[in-house]
Known about the structure:
The protein is of the alpha+beta class. About 30% of the residues lie in helices and about 20% in strands.
Amino acid sequence: MKFQDYYEVLGVPRDASQDDIRKAYRTLARKHHPDVSKTPGTEERFKEVGEAYATLKDAEKRAAYDALGRRKPGEDFAPPPQWQRDFGSQAFNGEDIDLADLMAAMGAARRGAKPGPVRGHDYETSARISLEQAHRGSTLNLDIAQQGATHTLEVTIPAGVVDGQRMRLRGRGGKGRHGGPDGDIYLHIVLAPHPVFRTDGHDLYFDLALAPWEAALGAEIEIATLDGPVVLTVPAGTQAGRKLRLRGRGLATGRGARGDLYAVAHIDVPATLSPRERELFGQLKDISTFNPRITGGQDHQHASPVT
């Protein structure tokens, strides 16, 4: 058996707090998850991080692990002779050693009893889903690295999940030992970028391009939503940056409600003009009293030329 320094694997000191250990694990798990990183060896690194966290997050397991002492990572591990005396019923020899069983035996010997129920390991992974899948719910097949092997797990994603949400899959983690319960899987939801919409919780935002005359006169414009096209009324006099809200057209919340959809107005002007268009814009310039630089009573400011 090769000894693994779990503290070094997570990059934390041996006196690290549980909060520091949890933060280090989440950072490394996201970095080395096979769905995120394509670097060679990332899956093995992801498994090492999960194994280290499964031990150090549990106070009893961590205490038993600390009792193993310090060894260089990768060094062959051989228990001291007195362990055979103290844990005589356990066969500790070379590759037959299982670190989890070893620590369980240590704890049992300290209590003077046979090993009791041991809860299975918890695992953490991420699921990258589309905005449409978050809105309507979905069933995914995820590859989960558990106890040195990769398993395909069917997972139901309910409607209403948001980016960064953490789902708990009870009893889907590592198998318990000695009658102990199975562990859980914690699933971190990652929303893939959408070509049109941006998210803020269950609300959606998108940029609405308007022609100058649509913004000035108002317009009825067909826009896309996650449930199909709808007609948006643009009020006359709409300014750039104004948010036009469509109630209940955002993401489903999973509780029968919906977020809102916001169209953020952007006013575009034609890059080129036909002779007739140029003539009409010239007429508008001659008759209009509108001056955007003095609207609201602002003082005149003279800009310095850029050299």
